C-alpha cells in the first residue's frame, strides 16, 4: 500500500513524461480491446448466422456423407427412418437431400449443388416457403451471390442437369422463384434449392435424405443409421478462420503494446539513472533495497493502471458509439467466402476485457521490474552522491 | 539525563578500491559517542568525515574494525536490519537537503513515519510538531521548489527529527547556506539536542558550525588528529573518549 502511495505521488509528480507514456499505453489498450471486440463480434454474428442459415442445432449425417468430398454424395443418402420421420413431423428435424448438378445459365456451364429442402421447414432461415409448385415448373431458390455470379434474376429459367440414383443423366429447366440474401456464403455460392420431394423424384431417391438438420429445441437422442454432428464440429472451419484472424491481429497489437512498453522501460531506466540520489535518500530514510525496487516497479506498472483509466475515459464512449452504428463492411467482404454481416457490432466479453487488462498490467510490471534490479547492486553512499554506477 | 555510550568505534579502517590499488579513507579510528552529544567531525575534504558518518549510519561497512551503533555491530547487520536501524534510530541531514521534489513539505517529513507504520492521526500530530520545531508549520503544503535553501534544510531537520531518533548524522548541513541561515539551522539543531537529548554528529569544516559544538574531532588523512571537548561540555556531561 505504501509503495502504491509513493508511486502514485512520484508518477503524478513526473508530469508530462508520465502522461506521454500513459497515453501511448492507453491507445494500445483501447486498440487491443477494440480489435478483439470486433473479432468477437464478428465471431458471434458469424456463428449465429451460420447456425440459423446452415447448420441448425446440429445435423444427422448419412454415415458416408463428407462435406468436403462431392463424390461421397452419390452414395450418401438413405431413407428417412420412421423415428426421424416422427421428429420431422414435430418440426424438430428437417431433411435435406443433396446432389451434384450442372446449371447452364445463358448457355454457360456452372457446377452447383442441388439441395432438396422441405418448403414447410422452419428450422433454417432459408426462405423455402417460396418453393411452391408453379404450374408444372420446378421452382428454385438461389442466393444473391449465386444470382450475381450466374447472372440470374427472379423469374429466369435455367437448365439443370443431374444424375439419378442409377447414374443416368437427366436435365430440366427450373424457374428462379426467389433470390435470398444471406451473410453465410456456404448456403449461397453455387447452391440451388428446390423442393425436397421434387429432388427425390428427379433422382429416384424417394423419401431419402443426405442429412437431417436439427432444431434448437432438439436434444441429441441419437437416430439409428445417422451420425450426429454437433455445432462445434460443423463450425470448425469458421472457428479456425477466426482463430487465424486473431493470430494475425495479435501481431498488430503486440507491436503497439511493445512500443508502449518500450516507452515505460525507457522511462524506468532513465528514472533509475537520474534518481540515484532519491534512491540513496530512500535507503537512508530506512527503506530496504527490496522496498525501493518494489516502489519503482509499482511506479512503472502504475502507468498501466493510469492507462486503463485514461483508455476507459475515451475508449468507452468511442466503443459505445461504434456499437450503436456498427462497423460497415466493404462490399468485397461479401466475396470473402466466410460468414460476415454488412455491419459488424463489436462484442466485448468480460473474459476478453479481463485478459486484456491482465496482459497490459502484467507486461507493464515485467518491463518496469527489469531496470529496477540495478538498485540491488547500488551502493547507497554512491547513490546519495548521485554518482553514476 | 543519563548520557550513556551509544556509539563505539574500535580500530576502524575503511579502504576503497581505486583502479588497481586501494585508497585508505579511514584508519585506526577509536571513538565513542555518548547520548546527547553535539559533536563535529572536522577536517579538510578527503579527511574521511563523510565516510565515518556513512559507517555510523550503517550506509557503509568498515573494511576492518568495528562500529557498534546502539549495540549493533554495523558490519554484522543484514540489509534489512540496517534499514530498521536507520528508520527507527538514525536521522540524516544532507548538504543538498535531499528532499523528495514531488512531495510536499508535509509528505517529506511524514515519509519515515509511513515506513514505521504510524496511524494517520499520529503522523499528522508528529509531523506538525516537527514542523513547529523548525518554524515551518505554515509551509506544510509547499513543495521543496517553493522554499529557500535555509527552509529546505529546516525541512530536512524536521524529517530527521520527526521520528525522535537517538542519533542524527548531519553531513555539511550548512555548506549551501548563507551565514544567517547557517546560524539559524545550527541553533535549531542545538535546541533540539538540548530538549530531546538527541545525539548530533556533524561532518563539517564550517567555522560557524564549530562554535556551537560541544566536542570537535579533527580528522586528517583518515585518522583522528585531535579530539577536543569544548569547555562548556566538560562541565555538564560525561563524555567517554
What descriptive keywords fit this protein?
heterodimer; A: 389 residues; alpha+beta; 2 domains; B: 241 residues; alpha/beta; 4-stranded antiparallel beta sheet; 8 helices; 10 strands
Draw up the topology in text.
The complex is a heterodimer of chains A (389) and B (241).
Chain A: H1 2-14, H2 16-55, E1 59-61, E2 78-79, H3 82-89, E3 93-104, E4 110-117, E5 138-143, H4 144-150, E6 157-163, E7 169-180, E8 191-195, H5 196-203, E9 208-209, E10 211-214, E11 227-229, H6 231-234, H7 236-274, H8 276-284, H9 289-325, E12 327-328, E13 343-344, H10 350-372, H11 380-385
Helix pairs in contact in A: 1-9, 2-7, 2-9, 2-10, 7-9, 7-10, 9-10
Chain B: E1 5-18, E2 21-34, E3 38-42, H1 49-56, E4 64-69, E5 72-73, H2 79-89, E6 90-93, H3 105-115, H4 120-133, H5 149-161, E7 167-171, H6 179-196, E8 199-204, H7 207-210, E9 215-220, E10 223-229, H8 231-236
Parallel strand pairs in B: 3-8, 3-9, 6-7, 7-8
Antiparallel strand pairs in B: 1-2, 1-4, 4-5, 9-10
Helix pairs in contact in B: 3-4, 3-5, 4-5, 5-6
What is the 3D shape of chain A?
Answer: elongated
Distance between the termini of chain A: 29 Å
Going across the biggest sheet of chain A, name each strand in turn: 3-4-8-5-7-6
Average of per-residue pLDDT values of chain B? 89
SS-based class of chain B: alpha/beta
User: Sheet with the most strands of chain B?
Assistant: 6 strands, mixed
User: What is the count of β-strands of chain B?
Assistant: 10
Biggest interface, residues from each chain? A-B, 24 and 26 residues
Unreliable stretches of chain A (pLDDT < 50, length at least 5) are: none
- β-strand amount of chain A: 15-25%
Spatial shape of chain B: globular
The Cα radius of gyration of chain A reads 31 Å
Number of domains of chain A: 2
Mean pLDDT of chain A: 88
Amino acid at each position: 500500500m505504501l509503495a502504491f502511495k509513493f508511486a502514485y505521488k512520484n508518477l503524478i509528480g513526473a508530469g508530462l513524461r508520465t502522461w506521454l507514456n500513459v497515453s501511448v499505453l492507453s491507445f494500445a489498450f483501447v486498440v487491443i480491446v477494440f480489435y478483439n471486440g470486433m473479432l468477437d463480434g464478428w465471431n458471434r454474428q458469424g456463428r449465429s448466422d451460420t447456425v440459423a442459415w446452415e447448420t441448425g442445432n446440429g445435423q444427422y449425417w448419412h454415415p458416408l456423407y463428407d462435406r468436403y468430398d462431392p463424390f461421397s454424395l452419390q452414395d450418401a443418402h438413405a431413407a428417412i427412418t420412421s423415428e426421424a420421420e416422427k421428429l420431422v413431423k414435430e418440426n424438430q428435424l428437417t431433411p435435406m437431400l443433396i446432389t451434384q448438378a450442372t446449371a447452364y445459365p445463358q448457355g454457360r456451364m456452372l457446377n452447383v449443388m442441388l439441395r432438396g429442402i422441405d418448403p414447410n421447414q422452419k428450422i433454417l432461415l432459408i426462405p423455402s416457403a417460396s418453393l411452391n409448385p408453379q404450374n408444372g415448373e420446378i421452382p428454385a431458390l438461389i442466393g444473391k451471390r449465386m444470382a450475381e455470379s450466374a447472372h440470374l434474376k427472379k423469374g429466369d429459367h435455367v437448365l439443370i442437369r443431374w444424375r439419378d440414383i442409377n447414374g443416368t443423366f437427366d436435365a430440366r429447366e427450373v424457374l428462379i422463384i426467389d433470390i435470398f440474401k444471406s451473410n453465410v456464403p456456404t448456403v449461397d455460392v453455387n447452391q440451388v434449392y428446390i423442393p425436397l420431394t421434387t429432388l427425390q423424384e428427379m433422382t429416384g431417391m424417394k423419401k431419402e435424405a443426405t442429412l437431417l438438420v436439427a432444431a434448437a429445441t432438439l436434444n441429441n437422442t441419437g437416430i439409428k443409421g445417422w451420425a450426429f454432428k454437433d455445432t462445434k464440429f460443423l463450425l470448425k472451419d469458421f472457428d479456425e478462420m477466426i482463430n487465424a484472424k486473431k493470430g494475425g491481429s495479435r501481431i498488430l497489437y503486440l507491436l503497439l503494446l511493445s512500443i508502449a512498453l518500450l516507452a515505460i522501460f525507457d522511462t524506468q531506466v532513465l528514472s533509475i539513472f537520474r534518481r540515484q540520489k532519491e534512491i540513496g535518500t530512500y535507503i537512508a530514510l530506512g527503506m530496504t533495497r527490496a522496498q525501493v525496487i518494489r516502489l519503482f516497479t509499482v511506479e512503472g506498472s502504475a502507468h498501466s493502471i493510469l492507462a486503463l483509466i485514461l483508455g476507459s475515459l475515451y475508449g468507452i464512449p468511442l466503443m459505445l458509439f461504434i456499437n450503436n452504428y456498427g462497423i460497415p463492411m466493404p462490399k468485397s467482404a461479401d466475396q470473402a467466402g466466410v460468414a460476415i454481416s454488412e455491419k459488424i457490432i463489436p462484442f466485448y466479453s468480460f473474459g476478453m476485457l479481463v485478459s486484456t487488462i491482465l496482459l497490459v498490467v502484467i507486461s507493464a510490471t515485467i518491463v518496469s521490474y527489469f531496470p529496477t534490479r540495478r538498485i540491488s547492486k547500488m551502493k547507497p553512499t554512491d547513490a546519495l552522491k548521485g554518482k553514476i554506477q | 539525563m543519563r548520557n550513556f555510550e551509544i556509539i563505539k568505534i574500535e580500530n576502524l579502517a575503511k579502504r576503497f578500491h581505486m583502479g588497481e590499488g586501494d585508497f585508505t579513507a579511514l584508519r585506526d579510528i577509536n571513538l565513542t559517542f555518548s547520548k546527547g552529544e553535539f559533536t563535529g567531525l572536522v577536517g579538510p575534504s578527503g579527511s574521511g568525515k563523510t565516510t565515518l558518518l556513512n559507517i555510523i549510519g550503517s550506509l557503509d561497512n568498515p573494511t576492518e574494525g568495528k562500529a557498534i551503533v546502539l549495540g549493533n555491530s554495523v558490519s554484522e547487520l543484514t540489509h534489512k536490519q540496517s534499514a530498521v536501524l536507520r528508520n527507527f534510530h538514525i536521522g540524516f541531514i544532507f548538504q543538498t537537503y535531499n528532499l523528495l521534489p514531488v512531495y510536499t513539505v508535509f509528505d517529506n517529513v511524514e515519509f519515515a513515519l509511513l515506513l514505521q507504520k504510524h496511524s494517520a492521526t499520529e503522523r499528522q500530530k508528529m509531523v506538525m510538531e516537527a514542523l513547529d520545531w523548525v518554524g515551518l508549520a505554515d509551509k506544510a503544503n509547499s513543495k521543496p521548489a517553493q522554499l529557500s535553501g535555509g527552509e529546505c534544510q529546516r525541512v530536512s531537520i524536521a524529517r530527521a527529527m520527526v521520528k525522535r531518533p537517538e542519533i542524527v548524522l548531519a553531513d555539511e548541513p550548512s555548506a549551501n547556506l548563507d551565514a544567517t541561515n547557517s546560524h539559524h539551522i545550527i541553533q535549531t539543531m542545538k535546541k533540539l539536542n538540548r530538549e530531546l537529548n538527541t545525539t548530533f554528529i556533524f561532518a563539517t569544516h564550517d567555522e560557524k558550525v564549530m562554535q556551537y559544538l560541544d566536542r570537535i574531532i579533527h580528522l586528517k588523512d583518515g585518522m583522528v588528529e585531535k579530539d577536543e571537548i569544548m569547555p562548556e561540555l566538560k562541565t555538564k556531561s560525561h563524555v567517554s573518549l
